[in-house]
Amino acid sequence: MIRTGRRRLALIVLGALFGVLPAWLAATAPALAQLTIGVHHDNRPWEFREPSGVYVGFDIDMVRALGAELGVEVTTRPLGFAELFDALDAGHVDAVASSLTITPARLARFDFTQPYYRTSQAVAVLKNAGIRDLEGLAGKTVATTPSSTNAQWLEASRGRYAIRSIRYVDSMDEALALLRRGEVTAYFGDEPALLYALLESRDLAVIARLPTEDRYGIMLRPGSPWTARLDTALSAIKVNGTLAAIHRKWFGSRPPPDSPVTTVLPRP
């Protein structure tokens, strides 16, 4: 028994030296050749489905670049926003990349990579609504995405602005449809997504930007073998300019100086 144990230990040491693991150990090692990433099914410009059925967006391009850096195959799994957390918990996805803000509550439950984007939240209304600021939402019904940092800010600030009720939606497109039907008066969402929507929706106006300084990161299960690998790969595509090129593609401009798009940062 002791002799067998020593033999196995020797094989492991030799395998480490020559890059070859014994078959019995390789069979028990975690398979890290394929990476499944959870993304939101409708979250422009981060991830969304084109008419052809193909998913595109900033996060989609980023995770593909990370896969290329790591030499692994990446599969994306589109889900509702709240479903992303449950899917990660249950092991149905290896990580989530969906413009997710790093918050203390989420850090208590999950691991995160370093931030890759910094932004704020914003509020959009129809131009013809005649609303110019948050005070104009008194007595109104507004929309936001459940479990999001936008929802957290809105729930905490609802009384201050005398907002009558909150309607929870699963996507910005759903919220904009409600706006145009007159069922809600405003939508609280992430600023980049709303500014992207303004490019094609001339009937919208952003009436407030909330200086929340949200930082987006890739979310993983605690102790995931992917955490350090993805964080290292993220540093690499920041340094080599790949992530900045993705930013130019989706936002039409270079990232600002000291942006997390180009700056290597510590993990939270």
Describe the structure.
It is built from ten helices and twelve strands. It is α/β, with parallel strands linked by helices. It has a five-stranded mixed β-sheet. The protein has a five-stranded mixed β-sheet with strand order 9-8-10-7-11, sandwiched between helices. The chain has a two-stranded antiparallel sheet with strand order 2-3. Helix 6 links the parallel strand 8 and strand 9. Mean pLDDT is 88; it is low at 1-30.
- Sheet bearing the most strands, described? 5 strands, mixed
Count of individual helical segments: 10
User: Could you give the count of β-strands?
Assistant: 12
Strand order of the largest sheet: 4-1-5-12-6
From the alpha-carbon coordinates, what is the Rg to the nearest angstrom?
Answer: 22 Å
Low-confidence stretches: 1-30
List keywords for this structure.
single chain, 268 residues, alpha/beta, 12 strands, 37% helix, globular, disordered N terminus
Q: How are the elements arranged and paired?
A:
Blueprint: H1 2-18, H2 23-26, E1 34-40, E2 48-49, E3 55-56, H3 58-70, E4 73-79, H4 81-89, E5 95-96, H5 104-107, E6 111-112, E7 117-126, E8 141-144, H6 149-157, E9 165-168, H7 172-181, E10 186-190, H8 191-198, E11 204-216, E12 219-220, H9 226-239, H10 242-251
Parallel strand pairs: 1-4, 1-5, 8-9, 8-10
Antiparallel strand pairs: 2-3, 5-12, 6-12, 7-10, 7-11
Helix pairs in contact: 3-9, 3-10
